[in-house]
Design brief:
Radius of gyration of chain B: 15 Å
Number of helices of chain A: 0
Number of strands of chain A: 11
Number of helices of chain B: 0
Order of helices and strands of chain A: EEEEEEEEEEE
Structural class of chain B: mainly beta
Oligomer: heterodimer
Distance between the termini of chain A: 36 Å
Mean pLDDT of chain A: 97
Structural class of chain A: mainly beta
Helix content of chain A: under 10%
Strand content of chain B: over 45%
Shape of chain A: globular
Order of helices and strands of chain B: EEEEEEEEEEE
Mean pLDDT of chain B: 96
Largest interface: A-B, 25 and 25 residues
Strand content of chain A: over 45%
Largest sheet of chain B: 7 strands, mixed
């Protein structure tokens, strides 16, 4: 069974920078895993932020960026805002099927 | 404007079959590169990807649930239906459908992901 691992929780100060990562139990994450990133706030449906590693949707704030970092997919938030406090999920592609990570709870404090 | 909405029973009994319908607007499932996926989220837990159907009727399933899932589409009605057999209390979750897409660049096409999501529907499995 494929497992996608994210940091369970991270804390960042307003205005700071934080990087969330997404690792695969199958090995290094590459662009062929087409990493997606989603933000979810309590009581809401997930909102798509990043697709195919680093591509932003039209509604994605500029402070969000995606990349590959040390064999993992990464989501970097620069100039964090209080409204960025949320759960963040990555999604990886495995030749057709997809698997979500366990999520990272980001606290802005 | 793309919108999706999930519908189906809010309560099912153990061993029953769940049938959920995703009704969408703003796109056609006959358009190349388009898909509709299903995702669920147990209360307080992480998202779980379930299945995806493409414009060409290609279907993909979560390996761990493949034996219990069936995804179909009705292009004329703008609907995608997910059935899950042998429901168990651990299947209690909010079920979401989402618009999937591929994109093309430099002469090649790639998996995009899921961009627009429905609001979700909570399904409780209990006797």
């Amino acid at each position: 069974q494929t497992v996608v691992t994210q940091e369970p929780s991270l804390t960042v100060s307003p205005g700071g920078t934080v990087t969330l990562t997404c690792a695969s139990s199958t090995g290094a994450v590459t662009s062929g895993y087409y990493p997606n990133w989603f933000q979810q706030k309590p009581g809401q449906a997930p909102r798509a932020l990043i697709y195919s590693t680093s591509n932003k949707h039209s509604w994605t704030p500029a402070r969000f960026s995606g990349s590959l970092l040390g064999g993992k997919a990464a989501l970097t938030l620069s100039g964090v805002q209080p409204e960025d406090e949320a759960e963040y999920y990555c999604l990886l592609y495995y030749g057709g099927a997809r698997v979500f990570g366990g999520g990272t709870k980001l606290t802005v404090l | 404007q793309i919108t999706l909405k999930e519908s189906g029973p809010t309560l099912v009994k153990p061993t029953q079959t769940l049938t959920l319908t995703c009704t969408f607007s703003g796109f056609s499932l006959s358009t190349s590169g388009v898909g509709v996926g299903w995702i669920r989220q147990p209360p307080g837990k992480a998202l779980e990807w379930l299945a995806l159907i493409y414009w060409n009727d290609d279907k993909r399933y979560s390996p761990s649930l493949k034996s219990r899932l069936t995804i179909t589409k009705d292009t004329s009605k703008n609907q995608v239906v997910l059935t899950m057999t042998n429901m168990d209390p651990v299947d209690t979750a909010t079920y979401y459908c989402a618009h999937g897409f591929e994109y093309c660049s430099g002469g090649s096409c790639y998996s995009g992901g899921l961009d627009y999501w429905g609001q979700g529907t909570l399904v409780t499995v209990s006797s």
